[in-house]
Specification:
The chain is α/β, with parallel strands linked by helices. The protein has helices at residues 3-16, 82-85, 92-100, 157-170, 190-199, 209-217, 242-268; strands spanning 23-26, 39-44, 62-68, 71-76, 105-114, 124-131, 175-181, 203-205, 221-231. The relative contact order is 0.21. The structure holds hypoxanthine.
């Protein structure tokens, strides 16, 4: 682990207490309010040198450490995306810090466009695999052999099953599907969406994949849930925009919060 991550983890422990974190959660566009439910300490990213200046509206750039449904969590209220600065490894330091805080699991959430007509706006999707449609990788430049990370079952099968059980117990419909990472920041063309759909993806977005690669690299179990904010380009007459993403996120966000709370409660019981 980098010296920087160790120093940041020590500074975070000094503010938030020494109890180890069990789960880290990264919140996507329009999902940042989940951090408000945590009973704990909020540390602005600007107080954590090397953390991203989460420069995307709809994100909440604080790290919140505290208790949620009986579990010690670290909630990253915002993320850095590749499209902000051309760095696919922009979330490496925050994830190193998460591992250093004792977490064994990273759960990412994101806003995404749907390629499946039976998964409309307002749906949520538990990722069971992804397609790296960007061709980018956060481990390019890593010098050690640890860079050759196996990616089969990178969305932890046991956690996926726990999340499905939690959704069922809470009465929330949650789809399961394949997420494609598109670099952004422009949205996809209808032809790109047709192509990605043919390749086997069910939803598309601009994040999460680099974080899952980094999490596996760091030995963290990974899981992710998409909040469908629109039908992907060409699939409907909807106008796709970032404002639309933010406006539609609350529908799915409420479902994601319900599932996550149930999942954490189940872990605690
Ligand atoms: N494409 C890419 N990213 C997204 C979309 C989309 O349609 N919706 C929300 N994030």
């Amino acid at each position: 682990m980098s010296k920087n991550a160790k120093a940041l983890a020590a500074a975070i422990h000094a503010q938030a207490g020494d109890a180890p974190v069990s789960v880290g959660m990264i919140l996507g566009s329009g999902l940042g309010h989940i951090a408000d439910s945590v009973d704990g300490v909020a540390i602005p990213y600007s107080d954590l040198p090397g953390f991203p200046h989460a420069g995307v509206s709809g994100h909440n750039p604080n790290l919140v450490i505290g208790d949620l449904e009986g579990q010690r969590v670290a909630v990253f209220g915002g993320r850095a995306h590749y499209y902000e600065n051309g760095r696919a490894d922009a979330m490496r330091l925050p994830l190193e810090v998460l591992a250093e805080l004792g977490a064994d699991t990273m759960l990412a959430t994101n806003a995404a466009g749907s390629m499946q007509s039976d998964m409309p706006t307002g749906s949520i999707m538990n990722l069971h695999d992804h397609i790296n449609f960007s061709g980018l990788n956060p481990l390019i430049g890593e010098q050690t052999d640890k860079r050759f990370v196996p990616m089969k079952d990178c969305y932890d099968p046991a956690i996926r099953a726990e999340l499905s059980a939690a959704a069922q117990a809470a009465g929330v419909q949650m789809h399961s599907g394949v997420y494609a990472w598109y670099s952004g920041p422009s949205f996809e063309t209808p032809a790109e969406i047709k192509a990605i759909k043919m390749l086997g993806a069910d939803a598309v977005g601009m994040s999460t994949v680099p974080e899952v690669i980094l999490a596996r690299f760091l030995g963290l179990k990974a899981a992710a849930i998409s909040c469908i904010t629109n039908m992907a380009a060409g699939m409907s007459d909807e106008n796709i925009s970032h404002d639309h993403t933010k406006a539609m996120a609350p529908q799915g966000a409420a479902k994601i919060e319900t599932v996550l709370r149930q999942w954490l409660r189940d872990k605690s019981s």
